[in-house]
Amino acid sequence: MAKEKQPTKTKKQSKGLSAALVIVLSFGVALLIYNFVFGNPSNFIDNNPDNHPLQGNMLGTIYKGGFVVPILLTWLLSVIILSVERFIALNRSRGTGNLDTFVMSVKQKLEAEDIQGAKELCAKQKGSVAAVVDAGLRTYEQMATDTTGLLKEQKLAAIGTMIEQATALEMPTMNQNMPVIATFTNLGVLTGLFGTVMGMIRAFSSLGGGGGVDSAALSVGISEALVNTAFGILTGALAVIAYNYFSAKIDNITYAIDEIGFAITGVFQSKH
Predict the structure, then answer these.
(1) Which of 77, 91, 129, 182 has the fewest C-beta atoms lying within 10 Å of its C-beta?
(2) In this predicted model, what pLDDT tens digit does every residue of 104-158 receive, in sequence order?
């Protein structure tokens, strides 16, 4: 029995930003912002961060949120940076031109059996979709000119396998950092809740003193609780929005790959 030709392997795209590196850098930036922006002496009475913030001074109020604030700020900055990175990476995966137009143009070239023209469209489009389609087209050409006596079903299987392998190589690039963003949807809220509890503990401690209510400690405790709640909700909300948005973009890309993949095997089956 004749051996089936091995599909040509495609190159794996370069990786994006490391989430661990982003978190470490974000933590450094968060500490700088917390100490030198929020904790700037000019935000407080008598230029002393140990005192109350100036009336209406939001930066000083955030500083009074305590040690949880830089942690929450780290999560928030990480979500923003990773979202920008994913936006750039997925736009690169889609290619330089409109994806729907590219899909339609390739299908038209396939119907006309203009494989070279379809490959030229891939070279012009670039990106993950074009890389997968180009791999499928190259295998299409190999199978169309095969003289080893492979059965039609084997040729179709070879084309399908090549498309699946090329897709599998591209998917990690598209999905990179998505689990991290998903983690921040809960981590941000839970960290904010932790800060809220710490603030409420401080607030209630001021009520339990033997010398009466310590209004300063009560104010600091309430500020800590509310600031951390706000940061936690903001981080979780941005992470949810980013995750759902990028998941939809990835689905759109994979649908385009599937559509052209079916078109390639369908045309081969009908014309060969």
Answers:
(1) 91
(2) 999 999 989 899 999 999 999 999 999 999 999 999 999 988 878 888 899 999 9
> Domain limits of the chain?
19-271
* φ/ψ (deg, to 5) at 163: -65, -40
Handedness of CA 141, 142, 148, 154 (dihedral sign): negative
Q: Please report, rounded to a whole number, the percentage of residues in the chain having pLDDT higher than 70.
A: 90
Category of 127 on φ-ψ map: left (φ > 0), alpha (ψ -120 to 50) or beta: left
What is the rounded distance in angstroms from the CA atom of residue 204 to the CA atom of residue 244? 39
Alpha carbon distance 259, 177 (integer Å): 26
CB proximity list for 71: less than 8 A, separation 6 or greater: 30, 191
Tokens of 24: 């470490």
**Helix boundaries (H) for the chain:** 19-33, 58-63, 68-94, 99-111, 115-125, 127-144, 152-175, 178-207, 215-271
Q: Are 125 and 97 in contact (CB under 8 A)?
A: yes
Residue with tokens 């209630």: 204
